[in-house]
Amino acid sequence: xxxxxxxxxxxxxxxxxxxxxxxxxxxxxxxxxxxxxxxxxxxxxxxxxxxxxxxxxxxxxxxxxxxxxxxxxxxxxxxxxxxxxxxxxxxxxxxxxxxxxxxxxxxxxxxxxxx
Length: 115
Description:
Elements: E1 2-4, E2 9-17, E3 23-34, E4 37-48, E5 53-56, E6 70-71, H1 74-101
Parallel strand pairs: 4-6
Antiparallel strand pairs: 1-2, 1-5, 2-3, 3-4
């Protein structure tokens, strides 16, 4: 299992690694999780540049997961992921607006460019 800096999770068989932590994964699945639901996208052979690796670990397939997860078709999980991202963007906009109103960060139109 490999977690990438952009938040993606890849599950596959590690076939090669080099001195820069570049990885070659075989039989790779990209797992997308939203709440207690997930979906897997088949990626096949996948090369990961070492600077993008956040976490690399081994999974024990014999152990049962502690949380019951529901597997969804790819189209459904992608739709749920898109909805979750839109909610997060709206929450970030509201947070930024509140911080501007409190004077904790300057409004973008008030920033003076010295160059």
